[in-house]
């Protein structure tokens, strides 16, 4: 297992290098001059030239890329033009809110997925199965920002159970503030993982070892928990990991709707403020988070299925 993890880490090196290349050149391929956009109408020729020098945009492209790599390797990720601070300090300040949101939504999604998928699989083609598939297919089609606004109106304004915005202070206050946004993300995640786990359970139920376990007189609950669920979870781990990677980027919308002080809302603020170094640094941070989640998914997949690490 340790060899497998080390090999996965080594494989991440070219991926991370490719991310820096894509981030650097795609941002510079966007139309418009960053210095002019930052200064707006108040910027004269001298101010624009000074801003280009400050951002290093007057240098050849290859030198700009080397400076970009230097900022990444030094850990500063550059210096924000708007805030006047190293990007990494602002990232570390906002990162906990995003990680809390992603982790909390993942827990809620898993708690919903396992019992509902089991119920749907056991009641295959009957009313409970049809109901679960119908409800979560509809939820998957609803845009997250619209669902978030609807839940705010219902559960925060009409029935004031949850706050409409903010992050809270302390564990219970934080969970209370994050429940609505995490629930919105969890519904989208569960819409995918329930279908995946249900299919996995139905495939495993037809296996010979399940038939043998039933023939030995094992109780249905024991058979489902010991033989069916662990083997059915393998495919769902990949779906959960892939969707969690998507959630990292999706926090931009949810954090904006619920006014959470996370990386997503900081990213939106930086775009409107045209803070070029901040946008560049946050893009790298989001990409690294996605890569780390994919690595964690691979490790979890290898733990669940020994054949993966043996290969």
TrEMBL record:
<dbReference type="InterPro" id="IPR035906">
    <property type="entry name" value="MetI-like_sf"/>
</dbReference>
<dbReference type="Pfam" id="PF00528">
    <property type="entry name" value="BPD_transp_1"/>
</dbReference>
<keyword id="KW-0472">Membrane</keyword>
<feature type="transmembrane region" description="Helical">
    <location>
        <begin position="246"/>
        <end position="267"/>
    </location>
</feature>
<protein>
    <submittedName>
        <fullName>ABC transporter permease</fullName>
    </submittedName>
</protein>
<feature type="transmembrane region" description="Helical">
    <location>
        <begin position="279"/>
        <end position="304"/>
    </location>
</feature>
<dbReference type="InterPro" id="IPR000515">
    <property type="entry name" value="MetI-like"/>
</dbReference>
<comment type="similarity">
    <text>Belongs to the binding-protein-dependent transport system permease family.</text>
</comment>
<keyword id="KW-1133">Transmembrane helix</keyword>
<feature type="transmembrane region" description="Helical">
    <location>
        <begin position="134"/>
        <end position="158"/>
    </location>
</feature>
<dbReference type="GO" id="GO:0005886">
    <property type="term" value="C:plasma membrane"/>
</dbReference>
<keyword id="KW-0812">Transmembrane</keyword>
<feature type="transmembrane region" description="Helical">
    <location>
        <begin position="12"/>
        <end position="30"/>
    </location>
</feature>
<keyword id="KW-0813">Transport</keyword>
<feature type="transmembrane region" description="Helical">
    <location>
        <begin position="99"/>
        <end position="122"/>
    </location>
</feature>
<feature type="transmembrane region" description="Helical">
    <location>
        <begin position="178"/>
        <end position="197"/>
    </location>
</feature>
<feature type="domain" description="ABC transmembrane type-1">
    <location>
        <begin position="95"/>
        <end position="297"/>
    </location>
</feature>
<dbReference type="GO" id="GO:0055085">
    <property type="term" value="P:transmembrane transport"/>
</dbReference>
<dbReference type="Pfam" id="PF19300">
    <property type="entry name" value="BPD_transp_1_N"/>
</dbReference>
<keyword id="KW-1003">Cell membrane</keyword>
<dbReference type="InterPro" id="IPR045621">
    <property type="entry name" value="BPD_transp_1_N"/>
</dbReference>
